[in-house]
Amino acid sequence: MNISAIILAKNEAARIGRCLESLAWTDELIVIDDGSTDDTVRIAKSLGARIINSAEKSFAERRNIGLMEAKGYWVLYVDADETVTEGLATEIKKTITQPSFVAYAILRKNYYLGHPWPFQEKILRLFRKSALKDWYGELHESPRVQGETGELSALLLHDTHRTLEGMVAKTNEWSEVEAILRLASGHPPVVWWRLFRVIATAFFDSFIKQGGWRAGTLGWIESIYQAFSIFITYAKLWELQNRKQ
């Protein structure tokens, strides 16, 4: 096999079909399912994907499972709420026939609450399998690659932050993990000025550095939300630090 697509999913019945259809050109579809209770698995199977159950494992562990299971010479990682554009598919197929690098960063365009976000990020997602050693990190996972990496120019579309209700639920869930990890790493005590600093930094990054101000009302909502999200993480860290005392 030339290329395997590895897709992480959990309760993504509304989006998994579109994701897999955008990957129909690959040689192998592997869905790493984190205990979905909706129709995610059924839909994925109907589109030819091989399902691997990996409930209660970290993102890095799930990506590593996909790496071990993949049969392709190249591996492409996509999340269930992402879509590979025709332009990106064409670019990947052309690139892996005469590669200059062992891995490639892909340009990802995010959609928040159904609207395009001004900032596009670069993320390593395409690898020669033998060059990708593993993924590491409990929450914000990163790839460990042996060799030089390059960049692709076509877009991967990311339909994230779909509802405010879902955003708040996810923040409540993952801020707990973030706080525990920071506590375990020996983070300095959370004092009042540190709260203001992280809130201001998060807002500045979203609204100014990423150009959220160009998105109008959405930019304000998303940027204030990012500040709120980091505040919750640090408030929970403060709570854990005081409980430990």
Q: Descriptors for this entry?
A:
7 helices, eight-stranded mixed β-sheet, alpha/beta, 245 residues, globular, single chain, 41% helix, Spore Coat Polysaccharide Biosynthesis Protein SpsA, Chain A, two-stranded antiparallel ribbon
The name of the CATH architecture of the largest domain is Alpha-Beta Complex
Order of helix and strand elements from N to C terminus: EHEHEHEEHEEEEEHHH
Summarize the amount of helix as a percent range. 40-55%
Count up the domains. Answer: 2
Q: Which structural class should the secondary elements be placed in?
A: alpha/beta
Strand content: 25-35%
**Assigned CATH superfamily of the largest domain:** Spore Coat Polysaccharide Biosynthesis Protein SpsA, Chain A
Give the rounded overall mean pLDDT.
95
CATH T-level topology of the largest domain: Spore Coat Polysaccharide Biosynthesis Protein SpsA, Chain A
Gyration radius, in Å: 19 Å
